[in-house]
Design goal:
The complex is a heterodimer of chains A (273) and B (255). Chain A has 273 residues and is mostly helical. Chain A has 2 domains: 192 residues, no CATH class; 62 residues, no CATH class. Chain A contains 10 helices and 2 strands; from the N terminus they run αααααααββααα. A two-stranded antiparallel sheet of chain A has the order 1-2. In chain A, a hairpin with a 2-residue loop joins strand 1 and strand 2. The longest helix of chain A has 39 residues. Chain A starts with 18 loop residues before the first helix and ends with a helix. By secondary structure, chain B is mostly helical. Chain B folds into 2 domains: 183 residues, no CATH class; 49 residues, no CATH class. In chain B, 78% of the residues lie in helices and 0% in strands. The N and C termini of chain B lie far apart (90 Å). Chain B: Pfam families: EII-Sor. Chain B: It is a multi-pass membrane protein. Chain B: It is found in: Cell membrane.
């Protein structure tokens, strides 16, 4: 890959980001999903969130362009916990770490934080605060919505701003310890990243056949009796690898998004998915 | 009714943004109930219908990127209908659900159609044009506002029941098909990551991650930790091989 051989034109570490700058970035992280789409998901919003940080770190225009280009790659995580990743990544950018190490850490952290955030906020915080607010509201109590909003957002904004600082400090400290061998760090980061991507495909791509073959008395469910017997998550893996192969052949992601919509519509029309 | 419909449309636009941007969760029905109640001049009924919708729709959250029925439009139309028609909250839910489902289908479509804009963003990134990246994100917000405001305005102005009948003429298979496609869509993002990161020497780690999730059904955090364990092992193996052997190791080797 070309990125393998990228050398910063300006290799000196940038000065530390100030608390005020970090706060500004945490505010910008509210727009993480402003440009959400199925090709890159939160990528452009992610770049928007860290952009002033990147700008003050990379004074060299070519370095800035390379960094911005890298951060336009696919990105998706939990929108509250994203500031933790922002902190770590900005610390790495600041120390002019290897571009592949930066990518590896980004990919390795986004998946687990996504799962943790869902469990913490959507399955715990929201049900608790919303049910308190709603139980007041159904009795006609006007404070119900306010109780909900205040409780929810104290924790929401506390986590968002707290993790920004914590992530950044952790990043700076960890990098100071890992001075040796940046290519080893890149390799380690890529290993975690690819292990996580393997898991993400099986967990988050939802592709199932819903068709039962009936012949006389016997019934054969294509998904549970055939496909799952061969291998669980066979279709998500097969489809991802097909898309991977088509991408390598030079097909544009847009064509593949169109293809996916067509697959969904056909599957639904014939009632097999 | 025009004034009320416009005010409700503005609220729907604002919370349509909040569903993705900001996430203060003022888009939840419990808050919408109060606001729509205020606009329509019956706060108590608004609160009751909003609170009831909230309790029924507690589970409608975007888990793992899956899109549940749209709680913004569902909440706005449900409470407005509940207050205007003086209906039972359960009936309001019944009216609101077709809208909530249909709107989420449209949002799937929007997320698909917004993908080409990313190529413009790539160009901005290449030119180190930070203003361009800002503008793309503001454009997304503007579209979310207009889309939600319009969708909320029409049924409230023309009557939710007629609109619900219209929504139900959209064949179910199209709405289902879009939601199936939405479930498969993450495959594209993962394939793009693979294209950037994959090297032959890393295939084994990819396989391990897949097996841990597919066969052992481990959560992603567990898989990341196993990946981390492998990576640490690999890291220290490589370091020991390269660096000059430290003295303590020679001693332990001797034993």
């Amino acid at each position: 890959m070309a990125s393998n051989s990228y050398h910063y034109e300006d290799t000196t570490s940038a000065p530390d980001l100030q608390p005020k700058e970090l706060r500004k970035l945490a505010w910008r992280s509210l727009l993480l999903q402003a440009s959400f789409n199925y090709e890159r998901m939160q990528a452009a919003g992610w770049l928007y969130s860290i952009l002033p940080g990147l700008k003050s770190i990379h004074k060299n225009k070519k370095d800035l362009s390379k960094s911005m280009k890298d951060h336009m790659e696919f990105f998706n995580t939990h929108p509250f916990l994203v500031t933790f990743i922002m902190g770590i990544i900005l610390a790495m950018e600041q120390k002019k770490e290897d571009r592949e190490a930066i990518r590896g850490i980004k990919v390795a952290t986004m998946g687990p934080l996504g799962g943790i955030g869902d469990a913490l906020f959507y399955l715990t915080l929201l049900p608790i605060t919303a049910s308190i607010g709603a139980s007041l509201a159904v009795n006609g109590n006007i404070f119900g919505p306010f109780v909900f909003l205040i409780m929810f957002n104290i924790i929401h904004f506390g986590v968002r701003f707290g993790l920004m600082n914590y992530g950044y400090k952790t990043g700076v400290k960890a990098i100071a310890k890992l001075k040796e061998g940046t290519q080893h760090v890149s390799r380690a980061a890529s290993i975690v990243g690819l292990t996580v991507v393997g898991g993400l495909i099986a967990t988050y791509v939802s592709f199932k056949i819903d068709y039962t073959w009936t012949q006389g008395e016997s019934e054969l469910n294509v998904q549970t009796d055939i496909l799952d017997q061969i291998m669980p998550a066979l279709l998500p893996l097969a489809y991802t690898l097909l898309v991977y192969w088509l991408l390598k052949k030079g097909r544009s992601p847009l064509t593949l998004i169109g293809l996916t919509v067509v697959v969904g519509l056909i599957g639904s029309y014939f009632g097999v998915m | 009714m025009l004034m009320e419909a416009i005010l409700i449309a503005i609220w729907a636009g604002i919370i349509g943004i909040d569903l993705y941007v900001g996430l203060t969760h003022m888009h939840r029905p419990v808050v919408t109930g109060l606001v729509v109640g205020l606009i329509l001049g019956d706060v108590t009924t608004g609160l009751i219908v909003g609170g009831t919708l909230e309790l029924i729709w507690m589970g409608m959250v975007p888990l793992a990127g899956a899109q549940p029925p749209n709680v913004v439009i569902g909440g706005v139309i449900g409470t407005a209908f509940g207050v205007i028609a003086g209906q039972d909250p359960q009936v309001a839910v019944g009216v609101a659900i077709p809208f909530a489902v249909a709107v989420q289908g449209l949002i799937t479509l929007f997320f698909t159609l917004f993908a080409p804009v990313m190529h413009k963003a790539d160009q901005f990134a290449l030119d180190a044009n930070t203003k361009g990246i800002d503008r793309i994100n503001y454009l997304g917000i503007a579209i979310l506002f207009s889309f939600n405001a319009l969708i909320a305005f029409l049924p409230i102005y023309f009557g939710a029941e007629q609109a619900a009948a219209f929504v139900e003429t959209v064949p179910q298979w199209i709405i289902d098909g879009l939601s199936i496609a939405g479930g498969i869509m993450p495959a594209i993002g993962f394939a793009m990551l693979l294209r950037i990161m994959m090297k032959v020497e890393y295939i084994m780690f990819f396989i391990v991650g897949f097996i841990l999730a597919a066969y052992l059904e481990l959560p992603i955090l567990a898989i990341a930790l196993i990946g981390l364990a492998i990576a640490l092992y690999d890291f220290y193996q490589n370091k020991n091989k390269q660096g000059p052997a430290p003295k303590e190791e020679e001693i332990t080797d001797g034993i």
